[in-house]
Amino acid sequence: MTGTPLLVVDDIEVVYQQAILALRGLSLSVDAGQAVTLLGANGAGKSTALKAVSNLLRAERGRVTRGRVLFEGQDIGRLDTADLVEAGVIQVLEGRHCFPQLTVEENLISGAVSRRLRGRALRAALDRVYDLFPRLVPKRGINAGYTSGGEQQMLAIGRALMARPRLIALDEPSMGLAPLVVEEIFDILHRLRDEEGISLLIAEQNAAVALRHADHAYIVENGRAVVDGPAADIAARPDVRDLYFGLSASSERTPHAPGAPVLTESP
Amino acid sequence: MDFLLEVLVGGLLSGVMYSLVAIGFVLIYKTSGVLNFAQGAQLLFAALTFVSLVEREVPFVAALAITLGAMVVIGLAIERFVLRPLVNQPPITLFMATLGLSYVIEGASQLLWGAQVHGLDLGIDDAPIEAAGIFISQFDLFAAGIAGAMVLALVLFFRKTRTGLAFRAVADDQVAALSVGIRLPRVWVAVWIAAGVVALVSGLLWGARLGVQFSLSLVVLKALPVLVLGGFDSVAGAIVGGLLIGAAEKLAEVYIGPLFGGGIEGWFAYVAALAFLLVRPSGLFGQKLVERV
């Protein structure tokens, strides 16, 4: 872990349809080979932050109106999503978004379209994914729409891997999955980080799992990152435990004024 | 019995021509969610360009190549100047854009080639040949053969090539295709060019049948009941729907027509489509959403 930031999000503001302010000055950074998680409630801006990184905002008529996103020191704000995938940044969308009418293998191949692989190179790339996700092997000829939720999540991650990314942004990889499957998926993400040095930026509502597997965590509220720190430290904070685990050490919590930040900057 | 068979075969063969036009719609609808109203104008433009070139003593093959080139250029221009600025707009906006586009293309072809009616001779006799005791139009057989070859080529393209895979991915889930780095504009260009080629082929076949004139752009209206029947997003549906409409139309004309004093061929397809809508709104082969519960 060199400590050079691979990705820097610098004070960005995002507006949807020229009217809805979704992010108001969010900053974060991801080091090479680091797993970073974004925690926060629904609508806090986690997904928007990921889409700003992977340049998927335009598809939802959103725009970065202030600030910059740097990948390896380069401003990537003006790149196409496809250029960005070639540069090494890819997103695994919330809700998996596999191609339901394509077979599992075709889904994987679609992830390599940008690399123009064929023949043996394509086979090798596929085998690498099948090694990581052996559960996909018996399903390779089946339409992705007929596989289970866990398999679809694996497929979505595998499809992203086919593009040989250096940073994967994952939006709610645990959504709707059984706890055991969630563990399986996070274990694989762990392996990707350790064995292949792929950096991860994971937006999660399942704070317990995310904090256990991440190196660093940000808590997003009202379009800003209000608190950040090593995942273990964040997990130990009583106010975070209160809010995100529902296991309160001190069952009494001071009520806060509406609109005011729930968490405050650590002293 | 022979007579029934003859009507049926004649209907199926003319249905192939409907399928061909319908496929042009399906290609674009599947990938970009737009009902391309300009399909008819493209078809007219292709037929008119071809026939005008041939009348100016350009050899058949060269005229075909030049027209093909023109359809490719039109496809590129539509993507660049109409679709790209309107990307992520609601479907109705895109539909209106293609409606406007159809007038532009029709106007341009009139400006370029004039408004006369042209006869188009592809060198195929429309004389009937006898097979197994029934008479079949040679031209219909030829048209069916061409349409069949066209469909086969499209199917191979979608199943076997990387662009074909990208096309199916975009048709399945645009956002996901975007997220894995598929370049949507390239897929759209490919699709509009493919639709242009389909328009060329169907324009020539229909032009040879009806004469090349401005009402040729109205044959696309016949594709609508085919699409309702087959589903807007299924190539197979377009084929089966075309065959069904073709056959139903001819059979109705012969057997039900006399009850109305004849002449029902022109509107029977629409009534059939209307009735069908009540029963199966997504068509015979329309995408049944694969969904887990």
Describe this structure in words.
The complex is a heterodimer of chains A (267) and B (293). In chain A, 34% of the residues lie in helices and 26% in strands. Chain A has 267 residues and is of the alpha/beta class. Chain A has a domain at 5-96 and 166-245: P-loop containing nucleotide triphosphate hydrolases (Rossmann fold, 3-Layer(aba) Sandwich), CATH 3.40.50. In chain A, the strands form two sheets. Chain A has a six-stranded mixed β-sheet with strand order 6-7-8-3-9-10, sandwiched between helices. In chain A, strands 2-1-4-5 form a four-stranded antiparallel β-sheet, with helices on one face. In chain A, helix 3 packs parallel to helix 5. The longest helix of chain A is centred in the C-terminal third of the chain and has 18 residues, at 179-196. Chain A is globular, with a radius of gyration of 19 Å. With 293 residues, chain B is an all-alpha fold. Chain B is 72% helix and 3% strand. Chain B has helices at residues 2-32, 39-55, 60-83, 91-113, 138-160, 162-172, 174-179, 184-210, 219-230, 235-256, 265-279, and strands spanning 128-131, 134-137. In chain B, strands 1-2 form a two-stranded antiparallel ribbon. In chain B, strand 1 (128-131) and strand 2 form a beta hairpin. The longest helix of chain B is centred in the first third of the chain and has 31 residues, at 2-32. The radius of gyration of chain B is 19 Å and the shape is globular. The relative contact order of chain B is 0.18. The model of chain B has no long low-confidence stretch (mean pLDDT 85). Classes of the chains: A alpha/beta (267), B mainly alpha (293). The A-B interface holds A 54, 56, 58-61, 80-82, 84-86, 90-93, 97-102, 106, 109-111, 113-114, 116, 118, 143, 145-146, 148-149, 159-160, 162-163 and B 88, 162, 165-166, 168-169, 171-183, 287, 289-292.
